[in-house]
Amino acid sequence: MQDQPTPPARRPGRPAARAGQANQRERLLDIALLLCAKHGAAETTIAAVARKAQMTPAAAHYYFKTREQLLDSLLEERFMPVRATFEDVFEAHPDEPFTVIKLLVERLMNINSRYPWFGTFWLREMISEDDMFKQRVHLRMGRQQHMAMLDTVKRWQRDGLINAQIDPMLLFTSLIGLTVFPLSASVKWKDDPMRAHLGPQQISDHAWALLLRGLQP
């Protein structure tokens, strides 16, 4: 009886193919996203992701060869789909500022409910001195779309459609502050008798009421 040929050795770092590993890459991206939101992109290394995932760095490197590849994957597969939900609102309603703002409030509320990392991630990106992720966003997208949205707001002001004293650069920040931040905090208010009634609908109504009055020309 002939000896059976020895199977080729598995390459170092490559995880063995077994049930449950089909979604390992997605799991690593989810972990990396949470680490980015909590500690920033500069502290989100493949070693840190592997440690959180309870796997070896070599196994994690099979999915992402470098931290740059990991961050690029986060940008393309997590951040960009969320950002895209805002851009079409301006395109669909170029001359209807109140419709745009109302839809943005609704979408921000939905996004934060669907992606719990969004509020923490956005806050860190706004106040952090670490520009690693911001630079990748600018390299990937440029500033054209952002500038186009700002130009639309400025045109609304010139046409007398909204309050001329509003700073276009602060409008989106104000939207985040009125929706995403209180919604993120509301999970801790359940045991607070003074705030327990504040849920997504109450936060959305409050944001819209303030914005509606403030946007009036």
From TrEMBL:
Keywords: DNA-binding, Transcription, Transcription regulation. GO terms for molecular function: DNA-binding transcription factor activity; transcription cis-regulatory region binding. Residues 1-23 are annotated as: Disordered. Residues 45-64 bind DNA. It comes from the Bacteria. Residues 22-82 form the HTH tetR-type domain. Transmembrane segments: none annotated. Residues 1-10 have a biased composition (Pro residues). PANTHER family: HTH-TYPE TRANSCRIPTIONAL REGULATOR BETI (PTHR30055:SF234), HTH-TYPE TRANSCRIPTIONAL REGULATOR RUTR (PTHR30055). This is Transcriptional regulator BetI. The lineage of its organism: Bacteria, Pseudomonadati, Pseudomonadota, Betaproteobacteria, Neisseriales.
